[in-house]
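INFO batch 0412 | record 1 of 1 | parsing
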Amino acid sequence: MDFRFLKLYKFPILLALSCAAFYFSFAFGLDRSDFFRLIGLYGAVFFLSFKLIQLQKHNFWFLTGAALVFRLIFIFALPMLSQDYFRFIWDGRLIASGWNPYEYIPTELIKLPDFDISQSEDLLTGMGSLSAGHYSNYPPLNQLIFALSGWLASTSIPGSAIIFRLVIILADVGTLIFGRKLLKSLQLPEHQIFWYILNPFIIIELTGNLHFEAVMVFLLVFSLYLLHKGNWIWSAVVLGLSVSIKLLPLLFLPLFFKYFSRTSIGLSLTKSNSHPERSRRIDGLKKLFLYYIVCISTVGISFLPFYSAEVISNFMNSVGLWFGKFEFNASIYYIIRWIGFQVKGYNIIETVGKILPLMTILVILGLTFFRKYQNTKQLLTNMLFAVTAYLFLSTTVHPWYLAIPLMLSIFTNFRYMIIWTAVVMLSYYTYSNPAFQENLWLITLEYLVLFGFLIKELLNNRKQAITV
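INFO prediction complete | emitting tokens
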């Protein structure tokens, strides 16, 4: 029996074992400064993973088992491509010791005579001067996960990393379950969930590098599934929890406006049938208002344990730094920056950093009022376009930011996000030199490939993409 199984699945098993070997190389011994090895390993595992999906797309349990094994390879490894986890551990130990992570800058807190957490110097050095010099910008539910490691692994950095990784793996299991359910409900091929779950970008950046976009994505998918099924109150609660992991899902709130009035969510509960369409829209807008209230209230309640006027100010200032100070792997912004240098002679990020978010808002409002929302698939497509516009107009696009648009894309006709996850790793060239200087030729290559594929898809999906 076992022999027949091996004979039947010998090629898929060989592909899976090859992927596992590449993931092991990522998990143990890879330095992010070794750019060419990183790109070589990533290109190989990317090709093999999608070949595995292609060959076994109807074998759900084989692909699920492979996805779990690939993640467990990282279980005892410390991240090689990111140092953010040091700040996660720092914040968690602060909470476990009774300190508010939103009230203190690490470099200042460590100087206080009554401050004492385990391995504080190691954590401060590990997180880097950029993180150590600013207030925490991680929302409350994320802080709760950090605190879990602070309580359970208060003296062990590897122990904290294992706790984070188990949470992220469980979140991916949730994404697999509810993503598959949503695909079935939308009458889309179930195997498309593996374009996210088995994508090496997701495994390496989230499970490997300990980024909690995995939890945010799970909660967002769960919320969208509940909304599709008509459980809009619980959908609002879960969406609020997703925002309390990362703020990004706030972008999507305006897009629900026409969805609630044009779909079954907005079916009128009134007895009057004289104007059924009008009654449906009014009822939908009432539900939408309550949806917003419940979602925002959930986020607000999550902040209560940390609340003070100073905390809110510190948190918002820290978040604002990403728009006005930091720049990495940008697209449109880098073009504007170059023009600014030609005209002004200096970096105009402080000015542009205030304008680009306004442009993002205008794009989202355009998507809100000038696109169709007759069903959940159209909502998901518009959400994909909204977050894509946000990333195109951002000054900073770290690779793990692509997790949400990648997940949204599997419910649509667009595949450009898969291409982006293939080429975004070119941005890691920055860490291959001591000055952390970006190679703008590689960034240009990344976005030329992406924009080329996106334009091709927009033309091929013209009826869906631009019909109003």
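INFO post-check: The CA atoms of residues 399 and 424 lie 6 Å apart.
INFO record closed
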